[in-house]
């Protein structure tokens, strides 16, 4: 199998490229490297073909995409706060860039696995099922929802083979951001953990290795075409519980500060559809991983 991974020098993309090469896939990476992790770049397998290509440059992608079986589209800008002040850039990268990738997938007749986000749901009152009406509260979430609509249009109008995976809060080795990474870094430096608000906000954390497993299963499965699937643990974790788990291992303190704008208070996924269609189950859970990570550092 030959795969193209956009954003393959990023956090999730790097883990995916490693796993694909391990499985003897031929892998090409498109990345502009502007926000690539040096740690990820150092660990990318030499067997992967790396090209400095921005997904906003359709002609460059056309020149090098070649004959691929699957496109894993992970390239995106993902900072919720930044998205509110750089709307044009977020629209061009996330939406225009995704349509360019869709055009490439259509031209080369490749299956497309698109990584969307729980941000499309916005604030939730109950566990999120895929048929829930999206209601993003951030511009980042708006761009991801627009990308989903583009994917569904290409599926319906052109018969493109597309699977959309809505990722929840991804954590793991080489993460470039997120509350788990921030808490662990501060704890290792002996600094207090900062919680914005009362710490009761609920998140659904999913390990990067489990996300990679879902991506590959989505590429190989014939049951999920044209579907949107939640990829998460299905288990609620309060931010306070996360902080307390770190404190228990390290002894640092917790500081509470004012709640931040655009912070979602409740985010939890129903993952039954992904389990059913992909024969997929998450294997690594947050608190276990935190204990192991802190003990090994």
Coarse structural class: alpha/beta
Q: What is the CA–CA distance across the termini?
A: 37 Å
What's the tally of helices? 11
Query: Using only CA atoms, what is the Rg?
Result: 19 Å
Envelope shape: globular
Give the strand content: 15-25%
List how many beta strands DSSP finds. 13
Summed over residues and divided by their number, the pLDDT gives a mean of 96
Element order: H for helix, E for strand: EHEHEHEHHEHEEHEEEHEEHEHH
Q: What's the helical proportion of residues?
A: 40-55%
Task: Give structural attributes.
about 300 residues; globular; 7-stranded parallel beta sheet; alpha/beta; two-stranded parallel sheet
Explained architecture:
The two termini are about 35 Å apart. The protein has a 7-stranded parallel sheet, with helices on both faces. Strands 7-10 form a two-stranded parallel ribbon. A two-stranded parallel ribbon has the order 8-13. Helix 3 runs parallel beside helix 5 (about 85-110). It contains 11 helices and 13 strands. It has about 300 residues and is α/β, with parallel strands linked by helices. The model has no long low-confidence stretch (mean pLDDT about 95). It has helices spanning about 10-20, 40-45, 60-65, 80-85, 85-110, 140-160, 180-190, 210-220, 240-250, 270-280, 285-295, and strands at about 1-5, 25-30, 50, 70-75, 110-115, 160-165, 170, 195, 200-205, 205, 230, 235-240, 255.
């Amino acid at each position: 199998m030959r795969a193209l991974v956009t954003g393959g020098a990023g956090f999730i993309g790097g883990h995916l490229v490693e796993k694909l090469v391990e499985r003897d896939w031929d892998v090409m990476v498109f990345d502009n490297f502007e926000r690539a992790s040096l740690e990820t770049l150092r660990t990318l397998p030499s067997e992967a073909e790396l090209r400095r290509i921005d997904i906003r440059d359709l002609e460059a992608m056309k020149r090098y995409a070649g004959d691929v079986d699957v496109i894993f589209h992970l390239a995106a800008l993902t900072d919720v706060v930044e998205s509110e002040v750089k709307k044009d850039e977020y629209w061009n990268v996330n939406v225009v860039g995704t349509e360019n990738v869709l055009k490439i997938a259509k031209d080369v007749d490749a299956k497309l696995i698109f990584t969307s986000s729980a941000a499309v749901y916005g604030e939730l009152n109950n566990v999120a099922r895929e048929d829930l009406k999206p209601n993003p509260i951030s511009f980042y979430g708006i761009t991801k929802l627009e990308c989903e609509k583009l994917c569904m249009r290409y599926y319906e109008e052109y018969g493109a083979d597309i699977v959309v995976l809505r990722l929840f809060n991804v954590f793991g080795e080489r993460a470039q951001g997120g509350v788990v990474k921030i808490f662990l870094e501060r704890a290792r430096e002996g600094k207090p953990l900062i919680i914005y608000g009362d710490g009761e906000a609920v998140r659904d954390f999913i390990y990067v290795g489990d996300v990679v497993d879902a991506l590959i299963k989505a590429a190989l499965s014939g049951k999920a075409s044209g579907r949107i699937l939640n990829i998460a643990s299905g288990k609620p974790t309060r931010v306070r519980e996360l902080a307390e788990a770190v404190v228990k291992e390290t002894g640092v303190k917790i500081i509470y500060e004012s709640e931040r704008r655009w912070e979602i208070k409740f985010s939890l996924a129903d993952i039954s559809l992904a389990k059913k269609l992909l024969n997929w189950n998450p294997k690594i859970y947050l608190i276990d991983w935190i204990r192991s990570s802190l003990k090994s550092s």
